[in-house]
């Protein structure tokens, strides 16, 4: 295993991703971790991430004293390189102009990191992002690659196994970056790359059994990937000690509730409480048009119903949550200031704040794509494991204005046709999320010889890697035309279809 000390770079998580992709288990800790904790982790090597600070600043972040005395290989990236150089007797200075983006470096030497990846004499593309630079190397270091703007682009102390890059090997814009990192973890640190999902599964099952003992666990199931995988993993570990509660708010996509019940109860034999609370939710949403009030209403009711059901089954000792690794990483934010609430998110995994139960978080070490891989390892169907994200408040936030059962039914019909065509065209997996929105306007149309005055809908499809930013999916016009024709012909009450071409930002993915 490898330890990544985070100095606050935007891309620290990518280091972890690259390492895990090459079969190396790693964790990201804040740079403030003390030396006992670091020593106790048992890492085979340490990586210092980049960060926004400047080493030339007296108060700049430093890793714990004694980190070099552990005699472990160290790779410093960007700020990490500079902090390493400063601590080992080199000199770092500012004022050389900032360098951002793609750059070319010449390989002037060789070391374990470049072996078999960068040949001496070659010119290689890297991605730079820095202000300061090293001006005097610490004793023992030599230059392995350089450019005019970055004379110490890659440096190495071969003896002590310390390496530093001024560029970011973890981003895809450094084409051989993953191979360089692999040389560090496998070549220098001696990792074997045997961290696999099968291994994780066995380890996680053992850990869950040890944590839960003979206790009882409840798990809120949403039908989404995270809670579904958490439930199946828990069931493998503790069998009937697990009860899943599926609160059906009546705002799911067509056929989804039946599918959840069939998958978990029938196929996986999991004890499942299916509570149809659609009357209650739709009743509470009557007359509500404000997006935040909708979200809060649904969130509050969800907790109420969940608590009711969990009392009915006689309570439990543990509450399972589908927390993922990105939620867990202790963030080293440069600004740390309060951010504006764009939307109050409601998530089955992160709900019941007032419940007095211990937490079980079987996925807290995994990234989203690793959760999918684990689901496949557990034999879960692709319809669940590869499913597009779906928001906790469901179709309510895809129906601007008041939500009614009739509108939800209409939207389900539109959504089904749209997704059906996307699947038929083989586009489902290329899209992060695709869905329809029912617009609160009526427009005039003509069908046959008659006038229509019906509702309009919008289609949305985006690509994204984490939902934080998104691009519009560039469908062929012929595809959109086909979908539009089917919707208007097959869904009575809709006579107009539009395609939302807003990216995020400035738009958000959902409409509310
Ligand atoms: P926005 O609309 O904020 O959405 O661009 C980003 C991603 O988050 C999903 N989303 C939610 N997920 N509970 C969830 O679990 C919510 O309340 C919620 N609201 C939005 C959205 O579908 C997209 O994937």
UniProtKB/TrEMBL annotation:
Per the database record, which ranges form the GMPS ATP-PPase domain? 195-387
CC terms in the record's Gene Ontology section:
cytosol
Cross-referenced Gene3D superfamilies: 3.30.300.10, 3.40.50.880, HUPs (3.40.50.620)
**Name of one Pfam family that matches:** GMP_synt_C
Enzyme class (EC, first level): ligase
Q: Spell out the catalytic residues.
A: 78, 168, 170
**What GO molecular-function term can you cite, just one?**
ATP binding
Keywords (alphabetical) are: ATP-binding, Glutamine amidotransferase, GMP biosynthesis, Ligase, Nucleotide-binding, Purine biosynthesis
Reported EC number(s) for this entry are 6.3.5.2
Reactions this protein catalyses: XMP + L-glutamine + ATP + H2O = GMP + L-glutamate + AMP + diphosphate + 2 H(+)
Q: Give, as in the UniProt entry, the pathway in which the protein acts.
A: Purine metabolism; GMP biosynthesis; GMP from XMP (L-Gln route): step 1/1
Instruction: Identify the residues that bind ATP.
Output: 222-228
- CDD domains, per the entry: GATase1_GMP_Synthase, GMP_synthase_C
Its subunit composition reads:
Homodimer.
Function according to Swiss-Prot or TrEMBL:
Catalyzes the synthesis of GMP from XMP.
- Which HAMAP family does this UniProt record tie to the protein? GMP_synthase
Write the protein's name. GMP synthase [glutamine-hydrolyzing]
